[in-house]
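Feature request, filed as a ticket because there's no other form

It would be nice if the structure record came with a short human-readable summary line next to the C-alpha cells. Right now we just get the raw output. Example of a typical job, pasted below so the devs can see what we mean:
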Amino acid sequence: FISLGPLFILCLIFKQTESLFHKWLLYGIGLLFSMAVLSFMVSLVLELNFRIAAGLWGAKAITSFLGISGSTGLTSQAMLQGGIGLLLTTLLVTAPAAAAQFFG
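Raw output as currently delivered:
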C-alpha cells in the first residue's frame, strides 16, 4: 500500500487519473481501519477465552476441593472451549471485512 504511494500521488496531476488516487486512499484507510478492528477483536477474543477457561478450571478446583461430583468432565470442557473457539474464530474472520466495507 505505502510503496505505491508516490505513484498514486502523481495521479493527482491529471483530472483523468485523480479518481485512482481517491480509490487508493480509500483502500488504504479501509485497510488500516480493518487492521485496527482486527487487533481489537483479537485482544477481546483472547481475554474472553482466558476468562472462560479460568472459570472452568476454577469450577473444577472448587468441586474437587469440596468433594462434589457435579463438575463437568474434561471432554465436556474441551467441547465447550472448542465450540466457543469456533464462534470466536468466525467473529475474527468477519469483523475486519465488515469494517473495511465502511470505506467502500
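Something like this underneath would help us a lot:
Residues 18-66 form the longest helix (49 residues).
The mean pLDDT is 86.
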